[in-house]
Each structure stands twice: as structure tokens, then as C-alpha cells.
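Quick one, probably user error.
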């Protein structure tokens, strides 16, 4: 249990540390691109609207792949954390009986 909590906290920390600035920058760039395309001319608007479905499909596939990979990693970390806790408990029992 403690191993799983520790790994999840580390994953949250890694996920939100420097990536928060990237998210804000990319979001602003995305909206600035739309504003530029709509302001500058209809040709840019048509190009942007034509490319948007492909970008959204690609983004969806990438998110699906990342989440499935993270789920597999967390399952492996949980299992290995359980093995480590069992080994440490066994060592503690042996150490305790050795002292008596």
C-alpha cells in the first residue's frame, strides 16, 4: 500500500512539475494560431480547419497509448512493491528471532 501511494505521488509530481509551463505555452500557441488564421485571411482558416481533425485524432491515439502504458507500469510497480514489502518483513522476522 505504501509503495503504491509513493509511486503515485511521484507520478503526479513528475507530471505536473515542468510540464505545467509547457501546457500553458502550447495552449496559448494553439489559440494564437487560430486568432492569426482567422485574422490574416480565409486561406489560413481553411488550412487550419482542414488539419484540425487529423491533429485531434493523433492526440487521441497518443493519449490512449500513454494511459495504457501508465496503467501497465503502475500494475508492475504495485506487484514489485508487494514483493519488496514481503521480503523486508521476512528479514525483520529473521532479525527478531536472531536477537532472541
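Nope, works fine. Designed sequence:
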Amino acid at each position: 500500500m505504501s509503495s503504491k501511494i509513493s509511486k503515485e505521488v511521484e507520478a503526479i509530481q513528475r507530471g505536473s512539475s515542468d510540464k505545467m509551463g509547457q501546457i500553458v505555452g502550447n495552449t496559448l500557441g494553439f489559440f494564437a494560431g487560430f486568432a492569426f488564421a482567422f485574422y490574416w485571411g480565409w486561406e489560413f482558416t481553411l488550412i487550419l480547419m482542414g488539419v484540425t481533425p487529423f491533429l485531434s485524432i493523433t492526440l487521441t491515439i497518443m493519449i490512449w497509448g500513454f494511459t495504457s502504458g501508465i496503467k501497465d507500469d503502475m500494475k508492475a510497480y504495485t506487484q514489485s512493491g508487494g514483493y519488496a514489502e514481503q521480503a523486508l518483513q521476512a528479514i525483520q522476522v529473521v532479525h527478531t528471532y536472531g536477537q532472541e
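Residues 2-99 form one domain.
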